[in-house]
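Technical note accompanying the year-one report. For the benefit of new consortium partners, we illustrate the data format agreed upon in the data management plan: each record pairs a sequence with a structure-token string. No post-processing was applied to the example shown here.
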Amino acid sequence: MSIFLRCFPMIRYFISYLCNLSIPKTVLIFSGALLLLINNSGYSIENFKILQTNTIIDEGGFIHLFGEIKNISHEPQYGIAVYANFYDKKGQNIGNGSGIVTARSLNTGQVSPFEIIFLDKDKSKQFFDYSLNFTSKSGSHKADSVNIVSSKSRPDIFGYYYVSGRISNMGNETATNVLAIASFFDNNGKIIGLSSAIAEPANITSNSAASFTIVMDDKLQSSKIKDYSLIVDSDQYTSK
């Protein structure tokens, strides 16, 4: 690890002190990108643009870091993993977490949500800041031949939120392991939840359709949902 990286928490603390311990989100994202670019050439933050991030605390007291990224590279990316370092107000690392971007691959220009859970509940109250980085591999382009043809949403009396609908396969071959992915947003457009479900049936033959039902089971957040977005992914195809 370079000297700069060893000193990075103190640099973050100095910046936060100068800003009265208030760092704009754009600075947070930039600092995460800077950490990545100087850390390891195997990381690929330069392939992605972070569209937004948000943190929430669930019923169990665990921190969930949600976000959306866009593939801005010149080729498809697959196996995209996301990593986070969590810091306190002094810039000290209090833990880390990782997750997988929900879509199995992203064509150039495509967007996918991600989620990281900070599992050390005892240190959650110390949380102040975070940095992000990503790994991925170059992949093959997927045709946008699986699409949502209808969807509807509803909360139930138990506090869960459901999104259901139909997926159509307009490709020439069977789409296998079809996955519907929902991002949930609050009144300010912030992402507050992420959930997914395999289509029924999971394999959709050419020019056929299947149903899906996605459940948002975080009751603290489900009552705040004002909107949602959907994408579809399969082994062969993706949605627009």
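Partners are asked to follow this layout when depositing records. The longest strand covers residues 77-87.
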